[in-house]
Design a protein that fits this description.
heterodimer; A: 484 residues; alpha+beta; Arc Repressor Mutant, subunit A; 3 domains; nine-stranded mixed sheet; 15 helices; B: 491 residues; alpha/beta; Amidase signature (AS) enzymes; 11 strands; globular
Amino acid sequence: MTDYEAVIGLEVHVELSTRSKMFCGCPTTFGGEPNTHTCPVCLGQPGSLPVPNKRAIEYLMLIGLALDCRVAPYSLFHRKNYFYPDMPKNYQISQYDLPLCIDGHLEVDVDETKTRVGITRAHMEEDTGKSLHVGATGRIAGAKYSLIDYNRAGIPLVEVVSEPDIRSPLEAQRYLTELRSILSTLGVSDVRMEEGSMRCDANISLRAHGAAAFGTKVEVKNLNSIRSVSRALTYEIDRQQKALDAGDKVVQETRHFDENTGQTHTLRSKEEAFDYRYFPEPDLVPIEPPEGWIDEVRAQMPELPRARRARIAAEHELTPEQAAFVASSPSSVEYFDALLAEGTPARDAAVWMAGELARALNTAGETIEQARVSAGDLARLLDAIKEGRVTLNSAKKAFQDAYTAGKTPLDIVEEKGLQQVSDDSAITAVVDEVLATNQAEVERFRAGEEKVFKFLVGQVMKATKGQASPQVVDRVLRERLSAS
Amino acid sequence: MSELWELPAAELGTKIARKETSARDVVDAHLSRIEALDESVNAFLTLTPELARATADDVDRNVSAGEKLGPLAGVPLALKDILCIDGVRTTAGSKILENYKPPYDATVVQKLFAAGVPIIGKANMDEFAMGSSTENSAYGPSRNPWDLARVPGGSSGGSSAAVSAGFAPLGIGTDTGGSIRQPASLCGVVGVKPTYGLVSRYGVLAFASSLDQVGPFARTVEDAALLLEVIAGYDRMDATSIRQPVPQYRAALDAGVKGLRIGVVSDWIEGEGVQPGVTQSIRAAIDALSGLGAEIGEISLPSFRYALSAYYLIAPAECSSNLARYDGVRWGLRASDAKDVVEMNVRSRTAGFGDEVKRRIMLGTYALSAGYYDAYYGKAQQVRTLVIRDFEKAYERFDVLLGPTSPTTAFKIGEKADDPLAMYLNDVFTIPSNLAGAAAISVPSGLADDGLPVGLQLLGPPMSEELLFKVAYAYEQARGPIATPPLWVNA
């Protein structure tokens, strides 16, 4: 069996968070009533004309510069022609052979190795509307009728195209995480894959290890999370490998990833591919950014994640993983700084953020901007642990419950009576009860079977729902056992 | 004493401002003439009497209040049915937009409203501005006021016929390959194709975006100059709009042509297919200009031979994309009972578009297809560059160029309808200015021996409107008044 190498390139679409759309003044806010964020321009009304959003072009430049791209001195918009009902003009204004940003790269860490992924281009385009198929399945086949919401039509999109430099699903995952972190740091996008503000298509082929030529590539679409990208690539590697091992050819085609089954299916073959009939958009003039403008944009460049991670890890003596989480976005750094300002030690802050907070965010599918437990409330919980008012385990539980309930962790501690019990008399009562109901074990301990002590501690902890101070339990138990 | 509808716009504007007549009376005089005669001319697809009267009443109120208004306040205008007025049916001469009412005003329309110009109706045209006769209108052709059996030219034939017939002293058209100048020539009126980017295209249904330009029709050069002053100017809604102040065209009209270098395009004067009567009329115009002190020379522009072919690749290519939005999904005609969206698209477009539009969509789609782009669209863009270069060379020697607007006078309805190539040749002298984004004007040079009007075309570099108006005005004064269409007498 041949040893294969995966060759992966990613195309990432990012919705920019400019206030207005790419070619008109309509708002870009997510989730308005259908077709309320529209005007003659983004509806493609006959006679309307596009006028480019300067801010969006600056955002693109910022992205390009952050990815070490060159900003082209001359760049054009083209029309990409194809018929689709959610595209008001039946062409998309996009960039084709003269994109604004070219020849960049992004460094990705996997374990100890740093991989340099080439960025072919970053270019500007406009988003389409959304179709809603009304019928039993919610899909177009068999739908009774379809509705279209054009609120999204015309929202500025940047497409970042990588070179086929990625070699594994894990590397793809790291590439996307790093890219998302950069975009978030630049403040140019919400980068929420679930809401579609960041979308990814993957190109993947296999070749024998050491071979120079590429194999036949497949494009995979409908990847709605970084995890989906990784799952789809893993599936494709396996599928293509089996095909090649069986002596079959991989067919060049576009495939659709199914979240539920984890499999990919043929969407359209190369022969069915559209002829987009690209030509220069005559309603717009070329972009020829003067040097001064590029410098102005460059001056807005914030500290990028790689530099920020290194700085924070060094400043606070954190592990790379902790630093990576803390430094993943400006909001995350803000949260970290807020914890430090409350007096939380950096290590504790990082451990809790990368641990419990990350877990809660993941479960809720939220980002740190949306975090429902504030840094202040978390800091007070950590104080309580330190002061022995709550055990570590209770605190973790209180944090997760607080997150779900939208309350503060200390409220939950209060509500559920999770306070640590260190009161001698309360613990003595429970110890006596435990000793009374476990006469046999008490005898065994007294006969010299030391390990039974642990069992008895467990019984006391169980009876106090884990809230008893372990130190106090230990002391009281030994006192009572030796007493009578 | 002349009837109100016979007067030029400038004179009407003055009378209204001096309260010698009211804007309301001027509008009503034109409306009654339309009512009496448009059945035979078919210049209008939609009349907008309420809108026109409302604008006129505003003007009259403002005049009474002693406000200083623009020179065209209260003077009625025929608007080509390709410019949007909020809530007024806009068809572009197509069945696919039979019931389309845009939700907004074109920038030109806003400027007309601001200048107090009453829009009296939406004028007939070739479907989506594709044609040279208005025979491609889904609502029947307009007829030439000089001979109702003949075409008024196109595509802005409804506007030129309206101005010629005395339905309105002012008209607005669009010129993509000659669609203002050729009908102006055939109807014996003045027509201006402004520099690309001088007049906003916002709210003008696109045919070929890199060529389309809005411009005025009038019966005198002065009126045309006044109207261009109103509609020209930078518009932030049009990214191709030129950011420059609008000159005062009228103020520069009577500077004369003494010492001006005028280049006669030799290939156009006695070229193949040029009607002898047209040549004669143009020669007489050249003599007149020479008599005014202009220096006349000759020039040959070799690349212009390929201009027509290049145009018929570029314009269809752009139209194939521009017209993609008429798909039955959002507005306009929608075929019922289609089994899916693709069938609905196809059936709506099949039923809604006429033959010429379909022909050009197919031509353009083909020219942009993978594997053909370089040979067709790419090559055509190269020709475009050559045309621009030839113009630049010519303007090193001359201030303006001169030739006929159209090779022939108005032809009979039906004469060329089945021969697209013969029809395309109507635009052979007008297309180069569009390809170059330059300015040109057609001014009547009298009647040919067949009794039909001939148009003298003056061409200049981009932003030379002031110069072209000056030459046209000098010539017009030297020429003296021309005959009026028979429709004026037979009324």
